[in-house]
Specification:
globular, 10 helices, 15 strands, 6-stranded antiparallel beta sheet, 6-stranded mixed beta sheet
């Protein structure tokens, strides 16, 4: 997948900016606070219909305006041209057009423009709570499978309804049954798909981590369900049993305590939890390895290279580690990199493909000579 052109209108600090990009590597350089990350946010928003920096779309609208719009033209590896436009207004909410057709269900659109983002905040995946790790899996799997996203959304809807019923003063057990049936049906599929993905990611991350670190630390990914399962036990039965067993607790908490929304993805290094035992360097190397695995996973499923977004991650990495990271990818497609130093790229060896430079200053982008 290659982004050919993007237009930002009233998006963050961009009043009106049109940028033509190229295959290969596109480096956005400039001082902090000029709008480099805002461009990546616009690309991410166009692909996933949401920001990676805020849950409130109002925060993205240019000060003094009441709406924003992002437009982009792309071409797939098969040579198919596609276009997307997403807009948000304070009065009408969000609207999406794909190939000039209105999209009413955003879930039908997700995955058409695969992206992988690597930003400093991604350290929260390994250092933060389970929510960040579940979110990582859900974003990856939602881009790779519309069926997964369908079951995930169905599960969340059923969870919302069950939790609402748990908050009733007078609750009849049979009121919960239809929603629990949906919870188990869709939740079991979500868990199984996550387990399959984690098994593949585990092998990829081990390989990337060793290539990145140059050392033989043993890393491992383990998916941990929120309810116990005996060996060879049917997952559907185990989930149903857990819901029944925890009913009184759920009524007391007014919330569902078991299910994929409570599961976790455990990262181990040398048999110990990375979250508690890993050094800062080990966390960084692991997260980069995880993101490279995400890239390879999507590439294998989509038969198209995702767009790779690197947001200010190179400042603390030495040249050999950067080179190892990039060269470890089986096939690298279009890359967007933000950096405060336009010269940092000189220390990277064996970076294949053309490199194009864009200076970002006060919400304006100037094209510089390519290398």
């Amino acid at each position: 997948m290659v982004l050919l052109y993007v237009k930002l209108h009233n998006f963050r600090n961009y009043q009106e900016e049109e940028i033509t990009f190229h295959p290969g590597t596109n480096i956005l350089f400039g001082q902090n606070g000029q709008g480099k990350t805002n461009i990546l946010e616009g690309l991410y928003y166009l692909a996933l219909t949401k920001s990676f920096r805020t849950n409130n779309d109002q925060n993205i609208v240019l000060a003094g305006e009441n709406y924003f719009r992002v437009q982009g033209d792309f071409v797939t590896e098969q040579g198919k041209k596609i276009s997307a436009t997403i807009a948000y207004s304070l009065s009408d909410g969000k609207r999406l057009n794909f190939n000039r057709q209105r999209v009413s269900r955003f879930a039908d659109y997700i995955g058409n423009i695969p992206v992988v983002l690597l930003a400093p905040s991604d350290l929260e995946i390994s250092q933060g709570g389970p929510h960040k790790r579940r979110q990582f899996l859900d974003i990856m799997l939602s881009q790779s499978s519309k069926l997964y996203l369908h079951h995930l959304l169905q599960y969340r809807q059923s969870l919302k309804q069950r939790n609402a019923l748990l908050q009733k003063v007078q609750l009849e057990r049979n009121e919960l049954l239809p929603w629990e049936e949906s919870l188990v049906k869709n939740g079991t599929i979500v868990i199984k798909r996550r387990l399959e993905a984690v098994e593949k990611l585990d092998k990829m991350v081990k390989q990337f981590y060793q290539q990145m670190s140059g050392e033989g630390e043993k890393v491992k990914l383990v998916y941990q369900t929120s309810f116990p399962m005996k060996e060879s036990e049917d997952m559907t039965n185990a989930f149903q049993t857990a819901l029944q067993k925890n009913l009184e607790r759920d009524i007391e908490l007014q919330s569902t305590s078991v299910g994929p929304h409570r599961d976790d993805l455990i990262f181990l290094i040398k048999g110990q939890p990375l979250r508690w035992r890993g050094s800062q360097g080990e966390h960084k190397t692991f997260i980069i390895s995880l993101k490279m695995a995400e890239y390879d996973y999507l590439q294998s499923v989509q038969n198209d290279s995702p767009i790779l977004l690197f947001d200010d991650i190179f400042g603390e990495l030495d040249s050999s580690r950067i080179t190892n990271m990039v060269n470890s990818l089986k096939k690298i497609g279009q890359v967007f990199i933000t950096t405060t130093s336009p010269n940092f790229f000189n220390k990277v060896k064996q970076w294949e493909g053309e490199t194009h430079f864009y200076e970002v200053k006060q919400g304006k982008v100037t094209v510089h000579e390519s290398s």
